[in-house]
Design brief:
The complex is a heterodimer of chains A (510) and B (176). Chain A is mainly alpha-helical and 510 residues long. Chain A has one domain (2-175, 242-413, 468-509). Helices cover 75% and strands 1% of the residues of chain A. A two-stranded antiparallel sheet of chain A has the order 1-2. In chain A, helix 4 packs antiparallel against helix 15, helix 4 runs parallel beside helix 17 and helix 7 packs antiparallel against helix 20 (443-465). Chain B folds into two domains: 2-80; 88-175, no CATH class. In chain B, strand 1 and strand 2 (46-47) form a beta hairpin. The radius of gyration of chain B is 25 Å and the shape is flat. With 176 residues, chain B is mainly α. The termini of chain B are far apart. Classes of the chains: A mainly alpha (510), B mainly alpha (176). Chains A and B meet through helix 8, strand 2, helix 9, helix 18 and helix 19 of A and helix 1, strand 2, helix 2, helix 4 and helix 5 of B.
Chain lengths: 510, 176
């Protein structure tokens, strides 16, 4: 009952004209960002984070900027489907699975039906996950209140371990990326001893540390853009869409055909989204796979099955809310986008984690309320403005790319008013481009530079408490199991390799 | 691609060694303290300031060695690939786009943000994008104007103006 009253209060604040306006603007920006190939929610949130400081200054609260960023996140999940279906190029990695059946539907003259199915499935996925979030978040936060330094460090270890065990990328490269982000987070003054650390080449600009935004905008604003230019070579061809109100109504009536995919995507997406390092992309791919597996007609998948559009779209929306759960209750982001949101919360003077629910209910509940509202706004804006987004998608990349470069440079300067950071951001961007070409995953580095300043003091305080004995992470009742799971996850690829070797040997013997 | 994989691993390995070396640096107020004294755990004091970055950098170095082993055994996709790291289009775009960005950064120090944005957009949209002069000029002029009203006037974040500062003084008088 308390939850219900808190949520109603939250709705009241989220529906205030300023917050509602920010949610609408955020959703529109997110839809655009999500629809543009090469841009995803993380790009939008990272590039626009510096601009939210002004929203905080004007409104005087951290709720409004967070509502704005969360709305961008939501909108981007909806928008990804537009380019997947009409261009055959996923707007973001989260919409890759939507391309499998969305593109064939468009080529069969059913683009309008695919777009409507994607929008409504996203809405259902978002609503289911919002309800699950509301139910799970407060109890999880109250359990997390009992966590001390060793428990929090063990959770950080778990977040990184999932990247290694479940990320699916090259393990040494993933591990390198994590450690690189953590080391970058130590540049500047050591907060415990006050000693300057890692002042590279004695350049004074490094004394204030390497800010998280400098790396995030460099990776997602510059590196990703150059990589997209190199991959797409400015070429895309768009399928014509016949989108009239009568066809929209007809497609809406036929949405019921996609109930199975929508349901699977909504629930599976949420639980996959909670896992650190999993998030919306694997969530949507898994939902697509499971829906195909349980379908009576699996052979129609890949040829324009409407369930194949609904499942990944419901899942990526659901997973995006799921990823907020560990970020808000434990202070551990599950994806690069939630890492940016977490960094934003820290900048606005909030401490993400279990105490947020007890000490900052004025922030938490309006935000949760805004999830519901943004979801409704997103489906309405999406359906009403699909023709506008289709028109926007025709914007040549040779105009979009320089505008994003400008936004990245100006955004970095506006955040810190320091040209050194702008130079560093561009250097990071170029470095990220080269590393991306060689399959180095960069999301773990972004996550690590956010978590580094939290993880290091927790480790040092734990070791001070235990007189340097590392077994503190294994012997405590909560930290122990978490550490063991983390170690198992780290070793998971090794187990898989051993199993594969045994199987190969048996095959050879046969 | 194969050669790029091992060269990158070697460079990243060198960077890791540099990070380790810097992590062990004595503090400025006690330069005579032995290097690497701060990378251990001291009883009653806990880990030193270099503990966390040093051992993480060592793991980074280990990862580079692991990448090199995978390269030798041809286990990672880039180490198996015979394709060039960047083809002629990639090299051209990198030089044009990367060079354009560096030019943009240098120009910020001379012409300030708004002047540099105008020149950069002119360069990118007209020369790289080959759009019409009309649309190039429209976008290149609109973005700095919108930027000025958004940052300097509405947000009160004064962006650097470089040598163009005198041109903005009348605007400051009107709007600020």
């Amino acid at each position: 009952m308390d939850i219900l009253f808190a949520l109603l209060d939250g709705f009241w604040v989220a529906l205030q004209p300023v917050n509602l306006g920010l949610a609408i603007i955020g959703v529109v920006v997110g839809l655009f960002v999500g629809a543009m190939p090469g841009l995803g929610s993380v790009n939008g949130v990272a590039i626009l984070l510096p601009f939210t400081f002004v929203i905080q200054q004007i409104t005087g609260s951290a709720t409004s900027p967070m509502i704005f960023l969360a709305a961008i996140y939501y909108g981007a999940m909806y928008g990804g489907a537009i380019s997947s279906i009409t261009l055959g190029v996923p707007g973001a990695s989260t919409a890759v699975a939507t391309t499998f059946d969305g593109r064939p539907m468009a080529l069969n003259g059913q683009a309008d039906r695919a777009l409507v199915t994607a929008a409504i499935a996203s809405f259902v996925g978002g609503t289911v996950s919002n309800v699950l979030f509301t139910l799970f978040a407060p109890p999880l936060a109250s359990v997390a209140l009992q966590f001390g330094d060793p428990e929090i460090f063990a959770l950080m270890l778990l977040a990184f371990a999932t990247f290694i065990g479940l990320g699916g990328d090259d393990i040494p490269k993933t591990l390198f990326s994590i450690c690189f982000g953590l080391v970058l987070a130590t540049v500047g003054f050591d907060i415990v001893s006050g000693e300057p650390r890692l002042i590279f080449f004695d350049i004074t600009g490094f004394t204030h540390g390497i800010r998280f935004l400098v790396l995030a905008i460099g990776v997602y604003g510059i590196g990703e853009m150059i990589w997209t230019i190199n991959e797409t070579r400015y070429r895309e061809s768009m399928t014509a869409v016949n989108f009239t109100p009568s066809r929209l109504m007809a497609a809406t009536r036929r949405f019921a055909d996609a109930w199975k995919g929508t349901l699977i995507g909504s629930f599976l997406g949420f639980f996959v989204g909670i896992l650190p390092a999993a998030g919306a992309t694997p969530g949507s791919l898994m939902a697509y796979g499971v829906t195909k597996m349980v379908s009576r007609n699996p052979r129609s998948f890949g040829k324009g099955n409407v369930d194949g559009v609904a499942a990944p779209e419901a899942a990526n929306n659901s997973a995006s809310t799921g990823a907020m759960l560990p970020m808000m209750t434990l202070g551990i982001p599950g994806s690069p986008t939630t890492a940016v949101l977490l960094a934003g919360m820290v900048i606005w003077g909030l401490q993400p984690g279990p105490l947020l629910f007890t000490e900052q209910p004025d922030f938490v509940w309006p935000l949760i309320g805004s999830f519901y509202i943004s979801n409704v706004v997103a489906v309405l804006v999406n359906l009403a403005f699909i023709p506008v987004f289709l028109w926007m998608l025709r914007m040549p990349f040779t105009i979009l790319a320089p505008l994003i470069f400008v936004l990245s440079l100006v955004g970095t300067y506006a955040a810190y008013q320091n040209m050194f950071d702008v130079w560093l951001m561009v250097l990071f961007g170029l470095g990220a481009f080269f590393l991306r070409l060689l399959d180095y995953p960069l999301a773990p580095a972004v996550l690590a530079i956010v978590l580094g300043p939290i993880a290091e003091p927790k480790l040092r305080q734990s070791l001070l408490f235990s007189d340097g004995d590392f077994s503190i992470f294994l012997t405590r009742p909560i930290a122990g199991p978490i550490t063991v799971i983390a170690i198992i996850l780290i070793l998971l690829p090794l187990f898989a390799k051993i199993r594969r070797m045994i199987r190969e040997r048996r095959t050879e013997q046969v | 691609m194969r050669r790029a994989e091992i060269i990158t691993a070697a460079l990243l390995g060198l960077m890791s060694v540099y990070f380790m070396w810097k992590s062990g640096e004595p503090p400025a107020w006690n330069p005579d303290a032995p290097r690497f004294q701060n990378i251990w755990i001291v009883l009653d004091e806990g880990p030193g300031s270099g503990f966390w970055p040093f051992w993480l950098s060592l793991v980074m170095l280990g990862c580079c060695v692991w990448i090199a082993v995978n390269w030798y055994r041809r286990q990672s996709p880039p180490s198996q690939s015979e394709e060039p790291f960047l083809d002629s289009f990639g090299i051209r775009q990198l030089l044009l786009v990367g060079g354009g960005l560096f030019g943009f950064l240098v120009l910020i120090h001379i012409l300030g943000f708004y002047g540099a944005i105008f020149v950069f957009l002119l360069y990118y949209i007209r020369l790289l994008g080959r759009h019409s002069i009309k649309s190039t000029l429209a976008i290149s002029s609109a973005v700095p104007v919108i930027g000025f009203f958004f940052f300097d006037v509405a947000m009160r974040i004064i962006l650097p103006k470089g040598y163009l500062e005198p041109l903005f003084i009348p605007l400051y008088d009107i709007f600020l």
